[in-house]
Amino acid sequence: MFKNSTIGSKNENGIVAYIMLAAGLCSLLDFSRAESYISYGNLMERDQDFFQATYLYDIRQGSELSDEVYGFRGVPYESALGDAINLDKFYKTNWTDFSLTWVTKLDDGLGLIWGGSTGEYGEKYKIYPKFKFGFIYQTWLSKSSKLSIYATSYLGGMLREKTCQGDYGEIGGVQTVNCRLAGSTLKPSDTLKYLLNKKPRYEQFISISYNLSFN
């Protein structure tokens, strides 16, 4: 049913992926203070150079958009000629979106959040790399109470889905169609409105917390 299409280079994101992976491993090996969160004490330390003041905040492989695409794989349907069409080849990937986030202390109680992701792609979709930035601020309001503000934003990271060329035989001919909906009852042209073109969830995020200790 589908016409042959050209698959993009398998190494498109390889260089970025290896650089980020190496940077993450260096953070884990070299930063003795590396941890999954940044404590108030870390941000209050003085006389640190850039590397001493930088902590690995988060490392993960996969994302919400990557999970959404994963759900399309292995979903077959039957063509008008009775052939089984499997979407796995269109939505499989050799590299799952990989992200790293660091925090660098700028001043007493203030840290810069920065990082990014490699992105991900398959034959019929692409998740673009993204850059993450923001800040974390912590201050004691009294001996027993602390205020924390955490804010982040993203640049990039869009998920864009590509089309297929479907062969509808003598009646319909070859038409551009949404790969996932080629076997539906919709007209090929009507399926195009359902192509994914999504931004990451929580493109901007802010959290304010207040902690009170009882001695």
Largest sheet: 6 strands, antiparallel
Mean pLDDT: 81
Rg calculated over all Cα atoms: 23 Å
In total, how many beta strands?
Answer: 14
Which percent band covers the strand fraction?
A: 35-45%
Can you list the strand order of the major beta sheet? 1-4-5-8-9-14
Helix-strand sequence: HHEHEEHEEEEEEEEHEHEE
Can you count the helices?
Answer: 6
Distance between the termini: 71 Å
Protein name: Outer membrane protein
Organism: Deefgea chitinilytica
Would you write up a description of this structure?
The chain contains 6 helices and 14 strands. The chain has 215 residues and is an alpha+beta fold. The protein has one domain. The protein has a 6-stranded antiparallel beta sheet with strand order 1-4-5-8-9-14. Strands 6-7-10-13 form a 4-stranded antiparallel beta sheet. Strand 2 (76-78) and strand 3 form a beta hairpin. The longest helix has 17 residues, at 14-30. It is elongated and about 80 Å long. The model is unreliable at 4-10 and 27-37 (pLDDT under 50).
